[in-house]
Structures are given as C-alpha cells and as structure tokens.
TrEMBL record, chain A:
Keywords for the protein's UniProt record, in alphabetical order: Endoplasmic reticulum, Membrane, Transmembrane, Transmembrane helix
Domain of life: Eukaryota
Bilayer disposition of the protein: Multi-pass membrane protein
Record's GO cellular component terms: EMC complex
Name of protein: ER membrane protein complex subunit 6
Coarse class of the protein's main subcellular location: endoplasmic reticulum
Keyword Cytoplasm annotated: no
Location of this chain's protein in the cell: Endoplasmic reticulum membrane
UniProt keyword Heme, yes or no: no
UniProt organism field: Xylaria flabelliformis
Pfam families in the cross-refs: EMC6
GO biological process, one term: autophagosome assembly
TrEMBL record, chain B:
Membrane topology: Multi-pass membrane protein
GO cellular component: EMC complex
GO biological process entries: protein folding in endoplasmic reticulum
Main location: membrane
Record's protein name: Magnesium transporter
Length: 118, 143
C-alpha cells in the first residue's frame, strides 16, 4: 500500500484513473450481457453457467490487456501483466469486473434460457 | 478503426442471433417430436438431447467475435501517474488524446503547465532587446 509520502513524490491524476476505470467497467457490463445471452442459448445450468461466466470474463480482461494496455505499457518498460501504468492496483484490473457484471449476466442468462426453451 | 470494431461487433451479433434462432427451432422441434412420440405411447421417452454441436460452436465463436469487437472499440487509456501523463501531453499534444473516431476527447485539458509557460518573470528580456536592436540596425537608412 503506497503511503502519503509516495503520493506526494509521484502524484497520480484522478481524471485519468476515472477514465480508465470507466472504460473497463463499461466494457465488462456490455460483455457480461452478451455472455448471458450465449449461456442461455447453450442452455447452461448452475455451476457450468458460472464457470462459463468466469472463463469468458477473464478472457475479455486478458484481451483488453493485450489490445489496450500491453503495447504502450511494455514499451514504457513495465513487465508483462503489469498494469500499473493505467490502473492503481492490478487486483482491481484483473478481478474488478467479476462481481460488477454478474447481475447483468444472470439477467440475460435466465431471459435467454427461458426464450430458447419455451 | 471505429468502423472495423463496429463491423466486427455487428457481425458477431448477427451470428449470435442466428444461433439463438437455431437453438429455439431445435428445442421446438424436440418438444414437438416428444409430444408425438408420447401420443404413440412409446415407452422410451426421448431423452432431452443436448444442443447440436454446430449451434454450440456458432454460439461460442459469435461470443468471441463480439468480445473482440467490443474490446477493440474501447477508448485509449490514459497514464495515471502525473509525470507520465504530463510527459505524454508535452510530447504528443492533442494527437495522443483522440478517441476512436479521430476527434479530441471532450475532457482533454491540455498542458497542465500552461501557466508556467507564460509567466512574465521568465521572459528573456535581453534576448528580445537584442532582436529588436538587430531589427532596428537592419532597417534601410534614410526612411
């Protein structure tokens, strides 16, 4: 955990933090709905549905890392899978969307499950 | 760039819709067949067969394509550390803060050190005097 002194020495830009977090959470909310539709079409039930969600959300985050974060971050000298150039903690980046999109996922999952198996 | 990501997303959504319709038709056909079979009083209740493999593959591929389209449509990230962020503005200017359709972002604030650039205390007055002197001397005489 960075201390007050470190924030004084290396200040961070709150607008940029908000912009990046908003971009990531928007993406995760949108894709969670799409995953719900796919899970409903596939007819997944109980644990396999949640497993599907976790696998695809982590895949999306990895894709986001590969397309948006990695090209500039690696060039700036960060190591692989280090997101400190754009996000305050890597925990927030890698697992922040898991719970955020779960409600939308379950909504569209049940909807499409009911639609397809009418 | 923007039409590429939007086109990918739209293509994936079309595939997903098609998969959804196929799955719906399949389940309707299954229930119809089961009903007709049970009216014939056949002992074997046809087990609820799972989805055909082609619909499964189509759904997963469509999901991956939509995912790719949405990710490539996100806006550029900004560095959160002040020195990295200010250095990027200094080096690239507005070009580093365009969104996917090529316009400058609305909340682009410009150089955070603008005020320092125009402080009168930092004017090099001797240099300006020298320039003025050369300009005066360089004038053609007799005017």
């Amino acid at each position: 955990m960075p201390t007050e002194k470190e924030f004084q020495i290396a200040p961070i830009v709150p607008e940029s933090v908000m912009h990046n977090t908003k971009a990531l959470s928007n993406l995760q909310n949108l894709t969670a709905s799409i995953f719900g539709a796919a899970a409903g079409i596939l007819g997944l039930e109980s644990y396999s549905g949640f497993l599907f969600y976790f696998v695809f959300t982590i895949f999306t985050t990895a894709l986001f890392y590969a397309i948006r974060v990695a090209p500039t971050s690696l060039k700036a000298g960060h190591t692989v899978l280090d997101t400190s150039r754009y996000f305050r903690s890597s925990y927030e980046f890698w697992s922040g969307g898991l719970l955020g999109g779960l409600a939308g996922y379950i909504l569209t999952w049940t909807l499409f499950y009911g639609l397809v198996r009418a | 760039m923007t039409w590429l990501s939007k086109g990918t997303t739209a293509f994936g959504l079309v595939l997903l819709t098609h998969a959804c319709y196929s799955a719906h038709e399949h389940s309707a056909l299954q229930s119809h067949r089961a009903a007709s079979l049970s009216s014939l009083a056949s002992a074997q209740s046809s087990a609820v067969s799972s989805l055909p493999i082609d619909i499964t593959i189509e759904t997963i591929v469509a999901t991956l394509i939509v995912c790719l389209g949405l990710v490539s449509g996100t806006s550029q990230l900004r560095p959160i550390q002040w020195r990295v962020w200010a250095g990027k503005i200094e080096r690239e200017g507005e070009a580093g803060f365009r969104n996917s359709s090529g316009e400058v972002d609305k909340d682009y604030v410009g150089n955070p050190f603008r005020l320092l650039e125009s402080r009168p205390g930092f004017i090099d007055i001797r240099k300006q005097r020298r320039e003025f002197a050369t300009w005066v001397k360089g004038r053609p005489t007799g005017t």
